[in-house]
Amino acid sequence: MAYRIMRLRKYYDITRTNRPFFKSSLKQKIKISSNILKFWKNNLKKPLVISNKPVVAQIEPTSMCNLKCAMCIRDKIGVPIGTMSFENFKKILNQLDSLFKIHLSGQGEAFLNKDLFKMIDYANKRGIVVNLNTNATLFSEEVIKKICDVEIGEIAISIESTKKKEYEQIRKGANFDQVRESIKKLNYLLKKNKKKTIVSFAVTILKENLEELPEFVRFADSLGIKKIIVQTIQEKEDYVKNYSSEAKKNTISIYKEKLREKINESKKIAKDKKIEFIFDEEKSNGCIWPWRSIYITWNGNVTSCCKILDYKKDGMGNLLTDNFWKIWNGKKYQMFRNLLRKRQAPSPCKGCNMV
Asked: Are 129 and 84 in contact (CB under 8 A)?
């Protein structure tokens, strides 16, 4: 019975969080729907040159961040620091004119972009569903009110401990009590304003919090959160070589048996509390990013995936200076598609569980 209720809630969530699409003009609905159908057709055969535009885009509002997290390699790899302007955001959406959904996230904290709410509103008016990731440290009363004034499908809050001391050791610069109270206020005002936004937890499993995993479910339940997305620390080869010796101890492959035990325990608790629990490392049927999705950095650089680190070496082009179709069906994208449809890993994808 609990499983059926969760399935019904999932379908209900899909409907309620896609309001911008349903509120868009008939012309825009047809354009978006037609592009989705083209994608599904292309996804069956996975051709190298495709007729659909991206269905989903992950766009980086800024690469600036206000925290220094223990597992982050931003400083080590020298992430270019900057913020996307509202004008450039509009230029990008004008090229990607049949998007169904965008994720506003990247190497930085989305709420540091002063134009974030203008971006969300602009996307909403084009029938685009907007999701975003955040560390929730900038949720002032004013920010929470603005969240309630726009349509956001899902806000995924990154959190690595349910305990104050451990949380603040991992997310250096964050205040656990402040974040917890901000989440309470956010959920309260969303409910009061009859907003359909889903607030979820995004948990990265580390050596330090592996035993704590079931507690995340109980903590989420206490805050009224009904969805948890769990992933392990990234183990792609280009990430691992940039980890500090301490960070390498967090690669969860060392603790696979314990991980499976804690995942199963957490799933049982989540089922009992009617919380959707997603483990992002389950067996993959193959990567579909180069056929469905696109990643765009704050300065317009395009990569085939959000996990690509070296934009100069592995970038596909720049949407602010290059023609979209020349990028999307260019030789680099075709090479990626050719390898991935054979379940072979392109160089920057080695070690990724999605291949």
From this structure: no
Task: Say yes or no: 162 and 269 in one domain.
Answer: yes
**Overall domain count for the chain:** 2
Report in angstroms the alpha-carbon separations of 125 from 28, 151, 196: 10, 10, 17
DSSP letter assigned to residue 160: -
Query: Is 130 a member of any domain?
Result: yes
pLDDT tens readout for residues 113-130: 999 999 999 999 999 999
- DSSP symbols for 166-193: HHHHHEET--HHHHHHHHHHHHHHHHHT
Of the pLDDT bands very low, low, confident and very high (cuts 50, 70, 90), residue 349 is: confident
Q: Please give the average per-residue pLDDT across 10-33, as a whole number.
A: 80
User: How far, in Å, CA of 130 to CA of 174, rounded?
Assistant: 25
Which ranges constitute the DSSP H helices of the chain? 2-16, 19-23, 26-45, 74-77, 86-95, 116-125, 141-149, 164-170, 176-192, 213-222, 237-240, 245-248, 256-272, 289-292, 311-314, 324-328, 331-341
The pTM for the full model equals 0.91
Q: What is the pLDDT of residues 64-91, one digit of tens each?
A: 999 999 888 787 778 899 999 999 999 9
Whether 13 maps to a domain, the answer reads yes
CB 289, CB 345: distance < 8 Å: no
Q: Residue 47 has which token pair?
A: 């051709």
- One domain, residues 276 and 289: no
**Model pLDDT, residue 312:** 76
Q: Rounded mean pLDDT of 195-221?
A: 94
| Residues making up the chain, counted from first to last | 355
Residue 277 shares a structural domain with residue 299: no
What is the biggest distance separating any 2 CA atoms in the chain, rounded to whole angstroms?
55
Return all residues near 271 (Cβ < 8 A) that are at least 6 apart.
2, 3, 6, 277
Does position 324 have pLDDT exceeding 70, yes or no? yes
Tell me the backbone φ, ψ of residue 303, rounded to 5 degrees: -130, 165
